[in-house]
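anyone seen this seq b4? input:
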Amino acid sequence: MRLLRAVIALVRLGFATRFRLGGAYWSWRRETAFGCDAARWPSAAQRRRAMIEYAEWVASMRTLIKR
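predicted toks r here
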């Protein structure tokens, strides 16, 4: 269930940014999460896990706001 909520949160965020993954928001998000030096980034699997955790957090914040 958490994974489904995370995927939905990522899709909503994608629509909000018009899926411009190279745009200002996603570039800022990537640099904030992983830094500017791609050579020092975590592995792809660790980055995917971090993105899912972030999406789960976004979904949980949305449910808090609705209360």
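Residues 27 and 66 are 28 Å apart (CA to CA). Helices lie at 2-16, 24-34, 44-66. kinda curious what u guys think
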